[in-house]
Amino acid sequence: MILSLLILPLLAGIAQASPEELEQNLAYRSPYVSHPALGIDTRQVYKRHLEASAEVRSDLKKRQEQTDIPSGEDSEYPQPGYGLGVTDWSNSNYIYAGDLNFTHSVASGDPYDYSVILWTRAYPASTYRVDIPQCEVQRWSLTGADVDWTVKVEATGLSASTLYSYQFENCAKPDNKSPIGKTRTAPGKMATDVPTQRFAIYSCSNYPNGFFSAYSGPVVHEDADYVVHLGDYIYESGTGGAAIGRVPSKGAELASLDDYRRRYDEHRTDVDLLSMHQNIPIIAIWDDHETANNDWKAGSSDSNDSISTGGCAYSNGTVCFSDRAMHAKRAYFEWLPIRQVDLGDQARIWRDFRFGDLLDIYALDTRKYDRDITDLSYNTDYVATLAQDLDSSRSMVGPQQEKWIEDGLKASQDRGTVWKLIWNQVILGSQTPDQATFTINYDAWDGYQGNRQRLLQHIYDQSIDNVAVFTGDTHATWLFENNIQATLQGSDDITTLAASEATTYDHQRGTVVEFGGTAVSSSGWGNSWGSYENSTVAAKRMVENNPTLLYSKGYHRGYMTVSVNYTHLETYWYSYPGNQQARVPNNRTLAMRATMEAGMNHVQRPLMTPTFGAIKPGF
Ligand SMILES: *[C@@H]1O[C@H](CO)[C@@H](O)[C@H](O)[C@H]1NC(C)=O
Ligand SMILES: *[C@@H]1O[C@H](CO)[C@@H](O)[C@H](O)[C@H]1NC(C)=O
Ligand SMILES: *[C@@H]1O[C@H](CO)[C@@H](O)[C@H](O)[C@H]1NC(C)=O
Ligand SMILES: *[C@@H]1O[C@H](CO)[C@@H](O)[C@H](O)[C@H]1NC(C)=O
Ligand SMILES: *[C@@H]1O[C@H](CO)[C@@H](O)[C@H](O)[C@H]1NC(C)=O
Ligand SMILES: *[C@@H]1O[C@H](CO)[C@@H](O)[C@H](O)[C@H]1NC(C)=O
Description:
Blueprint: E1 2-10, H1 19-22, H2 42-65, E2 100-101, E3 106-109, E4 116-121, E5 123-124, E6 132-136, E7 139-143, E8 150-155, E9 163-170, E10 181-184, E11 197-202, H3 217-221, E12 226-229, H4 257-267, H5 271-279, E13 282-284, H6 321-335, E14 351-355, E15 359-363, H7 380-387, H8 399-415, E16 419-424, H9 449-461, E17 467-471, E18 477-482, H10 484-487, H11 497-500, E19 512-516, H12 532-545, E20 549-553, E21 558-564, E22 568-575, E23 589-597, E24 614-615
Parallel strand pairs: 1-9, 11-12, 12-13, 15-16, 16-17, 17-19
Antiparallel strand pairs: 2-5, 3-4, 4-8, 6-7, 9-10, 11-21, 14-15, 18-19, 18-20, 20-24, 21-22, 22-23
Helix pairs in contact: 4-6, 8-9
This protein binds 2-acetamido-2-deoxy-beta-D-glucopyranose (6 copies).
One 2-acetamido-2-deoxy-beta-D-glucopyranose binds next to loops.
């Protein structure tokens, strides 16, 4: 049911927008007050406009003195800088009356019960590049080259649990409109009769690796209200793609702001991704590849700030990790309809959402916020030693975020909110070493076992029920029942508690069910086995060797959906056979389904016989 259409007119031309007016387009603002370098200096932009204004006035004066007004130019840019001080925007002599090209359609995200973030990109369809004021109902603000022509506004005053349409329009040329987008607000924070909430959950969309057919799922089947992206929305490497005509335009690792912007631009040409954004609001968190492989708070596997060791002499020139990370974050905030969690904090994206008393969402940043050193290939032995020290203060999320998630889960439980959903980047479950199949991934929670123990201990001690974690990163599919006894002894020494639960169906105190999703298109461990049969042999070994792992699947790319009501949480894993080497938007296959019943803290037995992949014997 579409209740109303929000019209967000875009106005073209240069105007003397004050710094405050500029900042109505959130893309200008730094997401963090203490990090001005992540934003655009709007006072400088204002100054530039004042200078332009003076030039235009003198130019106008000259033109008024001419008897022959030059003809044929009005539909384009009659003169640079018109619109200055003009309040009647219909006067096309004073504003840019050319077309705007909505090059990347529209998108929306971070739904609250009263507001949602709306996004578009408005590029002047002319060779003349100016700043483009955008007026939104009573207000307007600019976009321009400073923010890569992105427009990001918060639409507020909305009704809860409501489907909305929205459209941006060129004020100067009202028939020049963006595509119509659809979005939705969250249920009221205090609502007690929340209908079933449905999420489509993605991770790891690598443009040269394959087509993004999986994004078409919720659009074609109309079975998700929100989309979630758990990270690796773009990839920073410059290789591959020749076989399918998706070669990255920059054939090198990304480093500059322009590099990262153009990479979003490129990923966002995929038609299924565009259509998903146009139709469904997203809640996104980043993982490593939005910046660089295996990044942590002070480096990545191929860059750091250490000039003496060559860490800065990275890619093209001498780009240090910190600069690279800042460019990456800036471009992410410009291109994704994510809220700016303005706490004066260091690059914080971890945030929560309340959907009445049905569910709370905790969206983590296990990657860039405050992560201690990770496995960077050249330091694996060192990190392995740190990883298994359960008493260490070593942290995956940093102390501030750790307190937030622990307090948040406890508050959810105390309020009586039924489900606690955690959006998480890297695998929480313990993946038992079996060198032939899978080596320990110290870049996942297995590399931060003390931190993992503190989190699971808290959930156990406080008897927090109905916690479900959704994880990306691995390009493969996993179903874990993580519990303090079986997971937290260090991955070299886990007990077989989970196996003993096979025949019982009791409430499990403190067990956290983890649903790991495969990639949209990235290849990796999952399909490194050469064939579906061989990958399933590996998956079988994994479920047999890992006490807490109930299901594993490797070969196919795809996504998961989760459907949540007051009594059940049901997750579906979908596969797109063919591994995205062609666009196959209608070829979704259900690989597996698993259901949690509220209050039980584990998934229902017996498990379904999967279409693809392997389940633990006896389950
Ligand atoms: C509008 O943008 C699209 C996508 O970038 C491009 O293919 C098209 O040529 C542009 N049209 C105009 C008139 O600039
Ligand atoms: C920085 O990176 C270089 C090469 O990638 C590596 O040899 C060096 O140990 C790193 N420095 C730090 C402090 O991690
Ligand atoms: C390095 O930067 C220069 C100047 O911007 C550019 O021409 C060149 O293609 C870049 N090289 C690589 C490997 O990215
Ligand atoms: C599957 O595994 C077998 C046994 O290891 C191996 O001989 C075969 O080459 C593999 N198949 C593919 C397609 O990689
Ligand atoms: C809740 O979800 C479960 C599993 O999908 C379903 O069987 C049940 O009918 C749903 N309950 C309601 C009230 O819709
Ligand atoms: C579509 O899915 C079917 C069944 O899962 C599979 O056999 C087929 O290869 C897929 N088609 C394409 C074009 O990927």
